[in-house]
Amino acid sequence: MTTLDSSSATESTMDDPSNLQQPPAAVNHRLSDEEQNSDESQAMWSSFTDGFREVQSVLDRNRILIQQVNENHRSKNHENMVSNVALIQEINNNVSKIVAMYSDLSTNFSTVFHQRKSDTDADN
Question: Source organism's superkingdom (predicted)?
């Protein structure tokens, strides 16, 4: 990693409050609104990312279960065929979970979208 020592003189003048021109109060207010919107956006995308990761985890589990069901079916072994009943039930339960997760993601997205639109309309 390379460090730039030549910037230390610039930093010392930038750190001195007397060298900084203070922006008008309205600009300070606007910056804090932008920072707040940025934080909210990051939290929103983080929430969506977490939700999609959770969905992907369940989908991955179903893929493994389906592979196991196929192997059991090909074996034509009675015990394996019986175990397929429980595996298929788990797959069905997981599909229900996935539907609920996508529904929640859709609702959350719609809520954020409409809230942002209302905020934008209120600002205009």
Answer: Eukaryota
3-class SS letters over 4-69: CHHHHHHHHHHHCHHHCCCCCHHHHHHHHHHHHHHHHHHHHHHHHHHHHHHHHHHHHHHHHHHHHH
DSSP 3: -
Question: Is 91:63 a contact under the CB 8 Å cutoff?
Answer: no
Residue 124: helix, strand or coil by DSSP?
A: coil
Angle between helices 78-123 and 25-75 in degrees, nearest 10: 160
d(CA 33, CA 5): 35
**Scanning the structure block, which residue is given the tokens 């020592």?**
5
Taking every pair of Cα atoms in the chain, the longest distance, rounded to a whole number of angstroms, is 84
Q: What is the pTM of this model?
A: 0.62
Other beta carbons within 10 Å of 103: 10
Q: How confident is the model at residue 22 (pLDDT cuts 50, 70, 90)?
A: very low
Please choose, from the candidates 49, 54, 34, 69, the residue with its C-alpha nearest in 3D space to the C-alpha of residue 101.
Answer: 54
